[in-house]
Automatic annotation (TrEMBL):
Domain Glycosyl transferase family: 314-471
Alphabetical keyword list: Transferase
Residue ranges occupied by any Glycosyl transferase domain in the UniProt entry: 6-173
One Pfam family it belongs to: Glyco_trans_A_1
KW Nucleotide-binding (keyword) present: no
The organism's taxonomic lineage, starting at the top: Bacteria, Bacillati, Bacillota, Bacilli, Bacillales
Keyword Transferase belongs to the record: yes
InterPro entries for this protein: Glyco_trans_1 (IPR001296), Glyco_trans_A_1 (IPR015397)
Protein name: Poly(Glycerol-phosphate) alpha-glucosyltransferase
Gene Ontology MF term list: glycosyltransferase activity
Amino acid sequence: MKTPIFVFNSLNVKRGGLTKAVLKRANLLADHNSEVVFFTLAYQQDHKNIIEKLYESGQMDRRIKVRNFYAELLDTELVTEPVQMPVELPGYSHIVDKKSKLPAYRYYNNGLYEQYRRFEKDGSLKLIDYMDESRTRQRREEYLRNNRLIRTSHMDITNNKPKLHRYFHADGTCKIAVWLDESGEEVKTILFDQNKEFAKVQHAYAYWIEEAVKSYESPVLLSDSRKTDETVLRVQGDVEKVGVAHSSHIASPYKDDSDTKITWHTFFEGIDDYDKVVVLTEHQKQDIISRYRVNPDKLHVIPHAAPSTAPATGESMDPHLAVALSRYSEEKAVDEGIRAFRHVVDKLPDARYHIYGFGPLESQLQKLIDELRLQDNVKLMGFTTDPAAAYQSAACSILTSNYEGFGMVLTESMAAGTPAISYDMKYGPREIIRDGVDGFIVEAGDQKLLADRILSIMEDSELRREMAGKAIEITERFSEKDYDQSWIELFSSQSKPENKKKKSLFGFMKK
């Protein structure tokens, strides 16, 4: 019996498509394996409480165990009774930070700004920043909800960024120290209990994993993110390794002759050390084989399954509403959908576009909406926990990304009986949407044609009805049964022996 071990950066309740896909697979494997484990690597101040919320919400099966590098080495605890800290600080005057989303205050000692404190909503102390006489931050202390100091970050006063993180056990001793270079990369790392020093934090993660996997039967390490490739590939010992691709490996402008993304170099440099590689589309598989000279037997295509969703009814669907579910980030090109919708509104003034998501570009997107005078038509709806309801409310969905690995938003939309309109991109749309049958595929960047396709669905009720009927066939074309069987078989099969020889790929990564 193999033990699936997901090596993942971090888990959170508010999740994007990658985390959602990985949790779905982990929950499936928990039904077919005696143990399923997550090894998470990133420091999270509230890690134990986040994992408990994932269990409580049903997003993660309680049979799945989560082990975090920092939580395990620091012996952190689940805080069920937060310790409320008083806002008042003897000898100090305090002023509210009105810009903070959490309760936060600046503390002054006889006119000098010496501390900044932020609290959780439950009244527990989250962090303290210490300032010098020039108001420059010297260090930051972070606390668990029981008022236990967990990390101190020492700041580089030239750029106000951390240069050293020190992590503490409950007894106050520093167990881990991590230095950061000028770019913010975590480099020199010391584990004091083991008296071990590492050139990079990823090497410390690999050392921890090598020791941890010894307690599991036939461990299989899965790297679902390019952030974890270096760690997984560095692990030595009797372990099987599976690399999983969730997105496109091709850099801007995302064409056949574009360079390989820098973030994928480690993956392809070490691809021979992966026993198996899983991709989401046949198109990406063939591109990898031709570009990187990979053994075809190593590659497995397992697309995401379409969800089982009740199709929209006439009562729930607004014929003049379009929706999108997307991160508000550059690669998703949400702004192009907004610009296209200006053309839609010019011809259909009561047309509306609801964009569900979250991300760093929220304020910029809102500014664009205002500039295009679309405040009454285009709304940034924020994160939704019920994507099916969002799709069921609309005549069509829109996807304008520069690239995708698959595009789960397309299958989710179509499963709800909502035709999808997508840019043509690598990868996904051409294997999911049947152009003109259950949605439309538009040349990337053609905002005028995108608008025309939206209008054709909104204005032609018969076309919309026919496409909706065809769209729900996605649940048969990408069925849960096929998805489940493919992943179960992957863990049941033996890896074929292969001569693993190093090869330099950088020469043809620029093809």
